[in-house]
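Quick one, tokens below. Sequence please?
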């Protein structure tokens, strides 16, 4: 792994500050640049490179600062705060965690003076795996596809989207506050960015008795999205997530369980 990082350690004058590790889509290494903590990420995945371009466009407003970027490599300021949104959600501070995530989304969705990156993926092709899955599987997938089709055909407040906004991708940066990392880099109705947070930090928290109704109320107020529209985005997202999981050969029961709860609330 050291060979992977070596060119960037030299080019950007970085010193090691911890052990490297692998994520689902790349390799990361804690480093320091001129004494300041940073994270070096190297990934060949197109969506990671696309995400790096979006991080640079955000220019540290609502997201971690990009300190350097070239090819497959990205150097970011590193989160050093002790806070964890996942821990907050699991220990009686879920409403606060949801509010922080909504505030992060608001900062990321705000317009910028520079043209948006031309690498952003519109939501329509992003949902492409849901349609054949819904046709083949029916059930919750079909309900999800119906909700998704209606939302995609009548978008509101179209903006740059993070695409994977949840408790693990908004970190405590100390004096800089809570900032986002690891975007997918999408373009579309901002409601999409509020669905995944309702599924996290884990299925137990998301499906606890009364949790979904309370979370929808909190997020609806904080993000200024109608509760039924928010539930529709959740239903659409759960079907999409489940179709990805099914396509990978795994059991999508988590996304389906949350999706069924969303569908039931929409039917009330």
């Amino acid at each position: 792994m050291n060979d992977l990082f070596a060119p960037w350690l030299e080019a950007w004058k970085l010193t090691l500050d911890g052990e490297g590790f692998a994520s689902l889509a790349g390799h990361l290494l804690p480093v320091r640049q001129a004494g300041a903590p940073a994270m070096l990420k190297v990934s060949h995945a197109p969506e990671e490179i696309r995400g790096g371009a979006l991080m640079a466009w955000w220019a540290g407003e609502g997201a971690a600062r990009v300190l350097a970027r070239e090819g497959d490599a990205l150097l970011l300021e590193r989160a050093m705060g002790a806070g964890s949104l996942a821990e907050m959600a699991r220990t009686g501070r879920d409403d606060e965690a949801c509010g922080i995530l909504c505030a992060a989304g608001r900062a990321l969705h705000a317009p910028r003076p520079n043209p948006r990156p031309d690498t952003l993926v519109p939501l329509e092709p992003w949902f492409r795996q849901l349609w054949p899955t819904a046709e083949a599987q029916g059930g919750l997938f079909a309900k999800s596809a119906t909700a998704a089709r209606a939302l995609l055909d009548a978008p509101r407040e179209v903006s740059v989207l993070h695409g994977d906004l949840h408790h693990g991708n908004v970190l405590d940066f100390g004096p800089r506050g809570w900032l986002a990392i690891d975007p997918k880099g999408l373009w579309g109705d901002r409601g999409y960015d509020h669905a995944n947070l309702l599924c996290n930090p884990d299925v137990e928290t998301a499906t606890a008795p009364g949790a979904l109704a309370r979370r929808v109320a909190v997020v609806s107020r904080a993000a200024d999205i109608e509760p039924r529209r928010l539930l529709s985005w959740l239903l659409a997202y759960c079907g999409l997530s489940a179709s990805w999981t099914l396509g990978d050969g795994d059991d999508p029961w988590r996304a389906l369980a949350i999706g069924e709860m969303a569908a039931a609330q929409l039917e009330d």
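The chain has a mean pLDDT of 96. The first strand starts at residue 14 and ends at 16.
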